[in-house]
């Protein structure tokens, strides 16, 4: 976790205090059910919840100090709770293993992280939609291979991004559902010393589903799927970030990250305004993608479990969630305040002297009876002149002067082929599909 | 693609013939709709389908020869079709771009690959379930960290695998749904020269959904999700493969890959029977995981599209699908014919002189009023003797001779704590959860 | 391996015929030494080499047919050789294991692949150097963050690429040295049934060094290092490919992949010339990087060896080497024939009205006694006007009219700050460092 | 960075204080040379070094407070230095860019990290060597595929590990040399405003070499190589960790991580002693491998530089170095105190009734004139009985009773084939090769 790439809510979720809070909830809910089942006194859960109702401070240092002696984190925590709650606390954890607490806690943390990320995605989608509507009909050149192809609108670019992040949202919802399971099944997962009803009770209270079969641990294919889903989202972040970096290039400059009036882009070069936010996002995307790999390697634990996944998750649990939360929020800010330059879009589109309409002329000639080969030759010979003039000549002018062309296609018809609006007749259809 | 790790049906799907067959279907369906819309003569589609009904041989070499001249694969194919169908064929491809054909074809190939993989998973699940039922109550030791923990059944191990691959099945279904989209939207995806109804028609005919917004290409986050899902499945394959490799170790030998009567394990060492199939699967899993990475990097194409994804997909499209198909089938065979040795399982479980029941004695002493500290000390001092005897002494015998122990726990009570069945009382619950 | 991304020499190295040829050499050299040691008759090696001298055709199908019966590739090969050579062949392979042959063969294949790749790098370096010298003083704008910064030369860009690929060359040499080891040490590597002198002899004959300690297999950290090195080279290929893709963008167009006179960039849009070769290289780089991962996972084989590495290497051995060979050759072609447009470079540099010289004016004002704050303000207020004029105004003109500026800096001095040559005074130093 | 997986020296190297200390050194050395070149007063460097000689506290909070205003980290630092040093400090940083400082600092940090890691490797190598000498002739079974093969010694296992980490050491030395370069070349790397002699001076003072051609940044192929090298080392750590995890399995138990007398393996199960340190190392290895990926993606920066590498390096710089340092130290501790059980090794080797000697009998029969087919049949029919007896019968006994066998091989000769020492005659050769 890099502090400058983190936000408080998500970070708090991965702090020791929060972890211990979830531990307590799991233990208290379990004790409650054990009481109902007659395994422990009903008074035990009451004592725990009464203390909890006082909103006690989680004393991480005290727990650490106990752990330094017991060498066992869960026992240290239980000891600290017992010191605070008193004798009734000894009924906690009956028939459970540490993994029951640790794995269910990780499930809660990842599910809650997913909730934050879903809210991040909602905010991002809202920002993209707002700017898409704003620029629904702002003409700009569509580029394939980085080369001018045919016109699109800036709104269409954003509609694509919307549809992509909407898919990311659905994927994350599915990943959240997968990861949000509860395992309280005892050593090697047989429920030998704990009734499955305890698991069901805790699951219900924490909003989790029951892990159908655990083997002391919740199976790690769930986590692999979760972190792989974050990796896919990171890919989509990179795509939009790279788009903006391209648009801000000096020669293109069709859009820019927001730059406040008094801001300095460079201490040495007053002319510089760099797309540093989206460059930053590009790097963060690389990290989030990388975190999926060890999660995939974690799946093949030995037999009922080994603990090799644990060190991995101490890194990627917080690092992937915190970084993705930050990245989504940053991207939302970038989109929200993005400076868009329609005039420059138009100017860029015009710089090739209308070459971008060559396909329509070609088709029209063909439809008017010129063979495809001839049509291609006619358009190309004029197009090449425009190309060589570096945009000083225009294709329409040259075509109008080419008698072979005008024999097949009148001036009015020719001109109509250079109509920008022609390309936008289905923008509404696409917006309808995307935004409903 | 490595021939020895491939099966014919999946491989055929990625052969040029099949690709061209899908190309034809897309073009013919599109022409059909263009005819209905009055853009081209209705006779065009009829001519195409009439020819297709003759089940013509796809002449890959002839198409290649044309491509050598035109330097364009789609044009080469259209030319070849025109040579066969005649003049009506010139109406094909009206208003479309090559990407419309290529990307929709890839969608069809991946969707059909997913169908094969889903069938593979069904077969695997059936094999696992059969063996799980067979060994529902076959006792075996549960191991955490590779160390004996407490008893489970071999059926439970397989129930875990079943639940895991069942999740994989659901993930693959979702990935299939995501990838199965159709884009026929023309250059830069604006439908400028082709009606969106054509796309809808082709999509319906091919069993695809409509890509809401394409930008000449189908967005690559879909493919990233697809290949990431295959990677997760590979992780689960590795887990089960590693389990079997462990079980076949000389010292463990609780199960073995099938070994036919006359087979030689090693030309030099007649005693060898190696788990080579599952070792092989382990390596294949590594490959399938690796293929997800470039798919993730493919997401961030430049602007409306660049073609950097294309070379990647020429590798990972066939390689990931073919290898996973092979791996699932091989794993199914391994499970189906797995040699299981219940006696050895029992022998291994017994080798520690009953130490695996130490927890229950500890709990019973506590419940009978011995303090936890004392109980631990009592059990441990006997357990250590058993440990040091390397299984020659048994814990039950020693405990019966320990007066401090027997003061709290009678012989009958003690014996009951060593009951294996105690651990299996919820096997049925778990099976019910997993197999329904 | 994708046929269209492969070249014949490298591909041949990974064909079965070549593999069998190397197998034979290893076996024959070993038999030779065994003869000298008196373990087998000296006549055995002679018989083998005599047959080999007839340049016999390697009959892959015949060997495959035998393998179908024996289920063992090395035994099948030995049987086929025996069928051809006769009785003396039975002395081959004495005291060896299959891995001795397989692993040493892989070492030979990788070492020879490295030789081809080193030659590829030499060709690439030569092409880069030639173009660097050609454009040593061709001015072009240096860009940070995609934004104009200060002037460089196109030769400097290429000098950087040269230095980078020269480092790649040295890394590959080191990786080649690491991988080129010979292991002939028998089952589990103890030399129990074969004298270490055999290993030394075979190593010397094949130009390999001796593996100091093998455990039936050559340790896979060597291979991990080899494929990681290829991955780093792929990164450098991507860097140069991306540079060219940027330079060919419509708005930049400072360089282009070669485009032959009659070539069509797009069947529909006559104006298109796409950087498809470098886009292709970008995708290939992603694949080559991905292949390093399973090689890294292969390191941790179980005990003396498991065979999980084998299926991985059947993929990545040929795929990584063949693809990298192709990519290096393609990049060489791109560089060799790259169309470079110095005029456009100059035009792009000029489009910001001299803003790129703002730093020098700032420094000069400071040196002439203006406070840094005032200097920044003076330059910025003029720079902003230039910026807003979109290059219609020039910074030099405005500064000359700004009395506060001219009070500190005379017209002549001002003009001198806009001198392009100033930036190139150390080009020679850098070239000296890079090209020696 | 996860605190529990970090050690103080390495961590300190990545703290802000240390970073600022290196910044100061670079700036002061540069100022010194600028003074010698007459660009700034010689008194400037003196003032800086005089202040530095007072060992001033680096006030990170004060610098942060300035950065909150200036929004520029290097300017904030320079301002803070100026506040402390006084007027002379204004000559610092003349003609330099921030990247000159940042990239050279990263080079220093990585080089110093490499020094720590090299020392770690030395300690690890020493521990391995000590244990290897100790167990040079401790017999243990060699296992391929997890199955007993033929005898080795425990010392040989460790000799392999030694050779592997010795290669890692050499790789790290090479990576260190690559990464230890200094770039002080100004904006876009042309030395336009700073003399190359400054770079040479700073490089020499900091023990770095000169970056031949930088483009504002040090090229990232160097960093890719560095982190890839760490990834390979991680693979070797995993290999040795997995070996120990295997050896500690209940059924194998030939070695164990150190377990102190009073220690509790599990609060619930007194019999448990888990290989948690090496499981932990396995997970850490996965992380260190993962960090190589974004480093590889960082290579292809846009044009002279973009800043996408920066966020990546804020993660992987500290995380990869700190985690690897911790892992190497932990592995050293594990090896140093590893509990080794030669008796159990012997017992495991004996459990198959001498089957592991089957190859030698086979060879001896062949050498005495029995055909290979007959010899195989004779050995196999006895071996199978031993196999089925689960080690109750021994191969030697059975062979002695088989008349067909004894007709070819006398009792004495037979017995000799079961000699363990036979396998160890070249242990010395191998040790000589490895330890010199």
What does this structure look like?
The structure is a homotetramer of 436-residue chains. Chain A has 436 residues and is mostly helical. The first copy, chain A, folds into three domains: 1-94, Fumarase C, Chain B, domain 1, CATH 1.10.275.10; 96-259 and 268-351 and 421-436, Fumarase C, Chain A, domain 2 (Up-down Bundle); 355-417, Fumarase/aspartase (C-terminal domain) (Ribonucleotide Reductase Protein R1, domain 1, Orthogonal Bundle). Chain A has helices at residues 8-13, 16-36, 42-53, 60-70, 73-85, 98-134, 154-179, 196-206, 221-248, 276-290, 292-297, 308-337, 342-350, 358-367, 372-388, 395-400, 403-408, 411-416, 427-435; strands at 139-144, 147-153, 181-182, 209-210, 255-256, 339-340. The longest helix of chain A has 37 residues, at 98-134. Chain A starts with 7 loop residues before the first helix and ends with a helix. The mean pLDDT of chain A is 94.
Structural class of chain A: mainly alpha
Supply the number of helical segments of chain A. 19
Order of SSEs of chain A: HHHHHHEEHEHEHEHHHEHHHHHHH
Largest sheet composition of chain A? 2 strands, antiparallel
Looking at the structure, the CATH topology of the largest domain in chain A is: Fumarase C, Chain A, domain 2
What Rg of chain A do the Cα atoms give?
31 Å
**Percent of residues in beta strands of chain A:** under 5%
Give the strand line-up of the largest sheet of chain A. 1-2
Give the helix proportion of chain A (percent range). Answer: 55-70%
The average pLDDT score of chain A comes to: 94
Largest interface, with Cβ-Cβ < 8 Å? Answer: C-D, 81 and 81 residues
**How many discrete structural domains of chain A?**
3
CATH architecture of the largest domain in chain A: Up-down Bundle
Total number of beta strands of chain A: 6
CATH H-tier superfamily of the largest domain in chain A? Fumarase/aspartase (Central domain)
């Amino acid at each position: 976790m890099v502090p400058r790439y983190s936000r408080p809510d998500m970070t708090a979720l991965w702090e020791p205090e929060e972890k211990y809070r979830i531990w307590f909830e799991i233990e208290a809910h379990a004790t409650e059910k054990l009481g109902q089942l007659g395994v422990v006194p009903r008074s035990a859960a009451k004592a725990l919840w009464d203390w909890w109702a006082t909103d006690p401070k989680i004393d991480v240092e005290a727990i650490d100090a106990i752990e330094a002696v017991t060498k066992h984190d869960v026992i240290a925590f239980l000891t600290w709770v017992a010191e605070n709650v008193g004798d009734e606390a000894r009924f906690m954890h009956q028939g459970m293993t540490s993994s029951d607490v640790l794995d269910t806690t990780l499930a809660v943390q990842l599910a809650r992280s997913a909730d934050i990320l879903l809210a991040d995605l909602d905010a991002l989608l809202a920002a993209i939609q707002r700017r898409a509507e704003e620029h629904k009909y702002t003409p700009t050149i569509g580029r394939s291979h980085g080369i001018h192809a045919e016109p699109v609108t800036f709104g269409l670019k954003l509609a694509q991004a919307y549809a992509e992040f909407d898919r990311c949202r659905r994927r994350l919802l599915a990943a959240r559902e997968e990861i949000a399971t509860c395992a309280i099944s005892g050593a090697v997962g047989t429920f030998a010393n704990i009734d499955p009803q305890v698991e069901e009770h805790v699951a219900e209270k924490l909003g989790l589903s029951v892990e159908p079969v655990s083997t002391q641990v919740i199976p790690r294919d769930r986590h692999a799927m979760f972190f792989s889903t974050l990796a896919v989202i990171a890919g989509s972040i990179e795509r939009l970030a790279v788009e903006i970096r391209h648009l801000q290039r000096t020669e293109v400059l069709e859009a820019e990250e927001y730059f406040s009036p008094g801001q300095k882009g460079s201490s040495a070069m007053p002319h510089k305004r760099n797309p540093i936010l989206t460059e930053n996002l590009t790097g963060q995307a690389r990290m989030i993608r990388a975190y999926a790999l060890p999660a995939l390697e974690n799946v093949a634990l030995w037999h009922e479990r080994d603990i090799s996944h644990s060190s991995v998750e101490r890194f990627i649990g917080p690092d992937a969630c915190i970084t993705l939360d930050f990245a989504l929020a940053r991207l939302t800010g970038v989109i929200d305040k993005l400076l868009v330059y329609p005039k420059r879009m138009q100017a860029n589109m015009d710089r090739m002297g209308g070459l971008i309409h060559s396909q329509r002329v070609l088709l029209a000639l063909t439809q008017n009876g010129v063979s495809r080969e001839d049509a291609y030759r006619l358009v190309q010979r004029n197009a090449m002149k425009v190309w060589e003039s570096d945009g000083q000549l225009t294709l329409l002018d040259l075509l109008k002067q080419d008698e072979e062309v005008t024999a097949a296609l009148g001036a009015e018809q020719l001109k109509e082929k250079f109509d920008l609006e022609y390309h936008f007749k289905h923008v509404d259809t696409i917006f309808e599909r995307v935004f409903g």
